[in-house]
Amino acid sequence: MRDSSRMTTDLLSDLLHVARAQCRLSGRLAAGGSWGRRFDNLDAVKFCAAVEGSCWFFMDGMASPLPFERGDILIMNGSRPLVLASEPHLTADAVMTPLAADGNGNYRLGEGNDFVMLGGMVQIDKGHQRLLLGGLPSFIRVGSAQPEAASIGWLLEQIIREMEPPVRPGGNIILAGLAQLLFVQTLRAYVMQSPTSDGGWLKALGDRRLAPALAALHAEPGRAWNLEDLANEAGMSRTSFVVHFREVMGVPPLTYLTNWRMRLAERELSAGASVAEVAEAVGYTSESAFAHAFKRVTGAAPGAYRKTFESRRSVALRGTVDDEAATAF
């Protein structure tokens, strides 16, 4: 019988926690008149939130530009440039023009405030970038007419209020928290749409057949899972489960299990756990078998990986942590 307690496993929180995904605001962009701009920041997760007016957005692979209106949110996985413009035809020739920020972190295109948006970046632990980027489609669009729009709209209002002068005590912490909530709320809204055309783990969270199997696997990653067990969790035959899992996730079920175990192992090793402790925690009775799997998946031996993070912690304690804050503009 299926253990219903496993169904409480929060897969989205689990994945974002392991990837150490933290959303940070980059500033506010105001545009007016006739304008178009290309945003080429690639290999990073970015988000844009329309807070006033409207414009048009376009990305490679789209049939035509689509409206980007007040209350809409875009999240992009950094695989394709984003183009925004005041009119659909202006997206074709848009280029990446320099933008300068004023003292309040505001950027400008053209004259006026016909369109205003907030921009941000999602910082991800370097070792887990492929986990988050691989699970997101090229872009996610959550519109102001969707069921979760009220919560998203409230968060946007709070962010705008906190960004207005004068600066209030604790403002930076509150803005960081609101930005993180906005990012996660947008992902939640997208998952609740039950997307059918996008691949990766984000799609699987909305798949009623795969979600129970993934919840069970994430609840007990160290268990000696086999295909029959996972198929039973999904309520499917073994063959149907394997085929469906691979179609959605892009890898076979047991390959996903191994990869997830190694993501967990990376987290524990970077926190200072011993190789033996980590091997046991992720389901390996043999330290050598774990070391072989870890190196095959990550390209590094677990001991060497652990020492790398020990060195980084030592540098951090000396106050020379590298700040990789980036701008969405």
Automatic annotation (TrEMBL):
One of its GO terms (molecular function) is sequence-specific DNA binding. Residues 211-308 form the HTH araC/xylS-type domain. The keyword Cell membrane does not apply. Pfam families: Cupin_6, HTH_18. It comes from the Bacteria. This is Transcriptional regulator, AraC family. InterPro entries: AraC_lig (IPR032783), AraC_XylS_family_regulators (IPR050204), Homeodomain-like_sf (IPR009057), HTH_AraC (IPR018060), HTH_AraC-typ_CS (IPR018062), Tscrpt_reg_AraC-type_HTH (IPR020449). The keyword Membrane does not apply. Keywords: DNA-binding, Plasmid, Transcription, Transcription regulation. SUPFAM superfamilies: Homeodomain-like (SSF46689).
